[in-house]
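To whoever is on call:

I kicked off a structure prediction for a single chain this morning and the downstream step that reads the tokens threw a length-mismatch warning. I double-checked the sequence; it's 286 residues and nothing unusual in it as far as I can see. Pasting both halves so you can look.
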Amino acid sequence: MGDLTTFHVDPSNLDQSRAWDGDEGIYWAEHAERFDGAVVDYHRRLLKAARIEADSDVLDIGCGTGQTTRDAARLAPSGRAVGVDLSSQMLEVASRLAQREGVTNAEFQQADAQLAPFEPGTFDVAISRTGAMFFGDPVAAFTNIGRALRPGGRLATVAWEPISENEWFRAISTSLAGGRDLPGPPPEAPGPFALSDPGRVRRLLTSAGFTEPQLEDLRSPMNFGPSAEDAHKFIVGLSGWMLEGLDDAGRRRALDDLFTSLKEHETARGVEYQSAMWLITAARAS
């Protein structure tokens, strides 16, 4: 792999870099186990679809705190897994956990996948668990990732389906809006729903040199914590910025509305909301 020790960020990714290598990355690093647990079903399906073999070399894009990288490395004991992310805080957790768990064939680099100097034709598989949605220039990013794959190399990623299919997002954003009509995220801007449109996904990947991608509809409950009280604290820490602009009364109402929603979704397994992701697979075109 090329030298990634010098960390460069594409100008279109500067906002994402500031967030993920700042307060947002710190919060995710501090709650790594919680975030991993929330998407455990999608994690399993992603790794199965990637078809990692014992000697595979795997590139993990937006690896975060590294669960995907470590598990990919376990599936490839004679190969390796390389995780890249914008967040130094999350990468520190990833490296620490790999060392603790004895995963010696996983490595981590702070890099912007959009322009990282990956050695061409190095990897058999590229994976991403909700990381590929945040590219400022997705065609450039997927082109760079494709260049790093061997001819015929596989891409597997999971990304959120539209907001209409994700109860968790609707419940949180509606509650914290406090009665305001807050606009949703722009459909093609970097963010959770940037790959929610199948037509756009197909255009992006084929433009970047991949074969026609396949999209599989996956659905699973997301767990936000063992109780409404616990989940409330976690979500406010993550999404409390949505409260900005509310007066004290509006803020209290929004927090109460959120707690009411969480209480209504308590189950024997914890607080659960329905969610939906696309499992997106493609191959590097020869």
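Update from on-call: the warning came from a stale cache, not from the record. Cleared it. Sanity check on the structure: The longest helix spans residues 248-264.
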